[in-house]
Design brief:
- The protein contains 13 helices and 18 strands.
- It has about 400 residues and is α+β, with helices and mostly antiparallel strands.
- It folds into 3 domains: about 80 residues, ATP-grasp fold, A domain (Dna Ligase, domain 1); about 130 residues, ATP-grasp fold, B domain (D-amino Acid Aminotransferase, Chain A, domain 1, 2-Layer Sandwich); about 160 residues, Succinyl-CoA synthetase domains (Rossmann fold), CATH 3.40.50.261.
- Strands 7, 8, 9, 10, 11 and 12 form a 6-stranded antiparallel beta sheet that branches. It has a 4-stranded antiparallel beta sheet with strand order 1-6-2-3, covered by helices on one side. A 4-stranded parallel beta sheet has the order 14-16-17-18, sandwiched between helices.
- About 40% of the residues are buried.
């Protein structure tokens, strides 16, 4: 789960990570009121969406008057901001962060993420702050500093010095960096974050470190331990189908292809998408119905896939271990009867009660295409999505 910048900065302040002074507004009137509360004659207006690239898209405005703040608020609030990370439809702007401007002397990058392979947290730092870190890593990898933190030891002084020296910080700034790194580590461990990013971490005109921006991603699987953090979720920033999937305990992620996939098990889902790509197709989603799927849940999953207008064919690939294939077949039939299906559906069932499931599909009278193997299923669904006729011979 992603948080807005202002929400992440509230947590930063709790963990002693310095951030600019500011407040959030949902209306133009509230934005101008904040200007009076902050004082000064210049302010930064920042659209709050779950996507980067806001500055280039006009979502970050440096205002020299209250009138300019009001104009920016009226232009941004209630609109959809399109950035290189938001997708073509953009994301709705419902809140603005109004901050006092920071006099920037130089910029750095600092983040903390989970290194799952090493089972440790990993600090990533660079002197190229304010830039796309992926581009920096690709073009100038020598500018990326990596420091792993063992969970039994926590952040050590030598690790702070290694990053600090690499970033060209002086002695006073090293002490501030220690506070920032310890704060990031404590935040990540206590809040179950998978990523905490400061880009840029700036040095202001007084030589102090300031987290000018903040990005925080929380582990969805740990949110049951943090109801206060889960309450910060902004559904308007999320794919509606992904939110619907959570309500039915389904694991669903929207993708950009046109072949809907319904699979049980994350590993099998990944393999299914790989086979679809291998045969020339493009998955429209990742959807894992889980090991204990019921017919009702399968029906909801099927309707969820079909609600995506990009989908031109659907592949159902089920291995019956815990979940029985006849239950999956019942769910498919229930969904097909409830929804006016206009696209081809390819079904591959294997495992517990697979024969019974296939028999139910064959006797249903529904236009379903069955396949004997995963490779065969992928080939047939790609052909069906392309409107080719080489799937007819396997129609149930």
């Amino acid at each position: 789960m992603n948080l807005h910048e202002y929400q992440a900065k509230q947590l930063f302040k709790h963990y002693q990570i310095p951030v600019p002074v500011g407040a959030v507004a949902a209306t133009a009137a509230a934005a101008t009121k904040i200007c009076a509360e902050l004082g000064g004659s210049r302010w930064v207006v920042k659209a709050q969406i779950h996507a980067g690239g806001r500055g280039k898209a006009g979502g970050v405005v440096l205002a020299d008057s209250v009138a300019q703040v009001e104009d920016a608020a009226q232009r941004l609030l209630g609109k959809r901001l399109v950035t290189h990370q938001s997708g073509a439809d953009g994301l709705p702007v419902t809140q603005l962060l109004i901050e006092q401007p920071t006099a920037i002397a130089s910029e750095r990058y600092l983040s903390l993420l989970v290194d799952r392979a090493a089972e440790q947290f990993l600090f990533m730092a660079s002197s190229a702050g304010g830039m796309d870190i992926e581009a920096v890593a690709a073009a100038t990898p020598e500018q990326i500093l990596l420091v792993a933190v063992h969970p039994a030891a926590g952040v050590q002084p030598y690790q702070v010095r290694r990053i600090g020296f690499g970033l060209g910080l002086n002695a006073a700034q090293l002490k501030q960096l220690a506070t920032v790194m310890h704060g990031l580590y404590q935040l990540a461990t206590e809040c179950d974050a998978s990523l905490v990013e400061i880009n840029p971490l700036v040095i202001n005109d007084l030589g102090d470190l300031i987290a000018l921006d903040a990005k925080l991603t929380l582990d969805d699987n740990a949110l049951y331990r943090h109801p206060d953090l889960e309450a910060l979720r902004d559904p308007s920033q999320e794919d509606a189908r992904e939110a619907q999937a959570r309500a039915h305990e389904l694991n669903y992620i929207s993708l950009h292809g046109n072949i809907g996939c319904m699979v049980n098990g994350a590993g099998l889902a990944m393999a299914t998408m790989d086979l679809v790509k291998l045969h020339g197709g493009a998955p429209a989603n990742f959807l894992d119905v889980g090991g204990g799927a019921t017919a009702a849940r399968v029906a909801e999953a099927f309707k969820l896939i079909l609600s995506d207008p990009k989908v031109t064919a659907v592949l159902v690939n089920i291995f019956g271990g815990i979940v029985r294939c006849d239950l999956i077949a019942e769910g498919i039939m229930q969904a097909v009867r409830e929804v006016a299906v206009q696209v081809p559906i390819v079904v591959r069932l294997e495992g517990t009660n697979a024969a019974q499931g296939l028999q139910l599909l064959a006797e249903s009278g529904l236009a379903l295409i069955t396949a004997s193997s995963l490779s065969d299923a992928a080939n047939r669904v790609v052909a069906a999505a392309a409107g080719r006729n080489d799937t007819v011979e396997a129609t149930a």
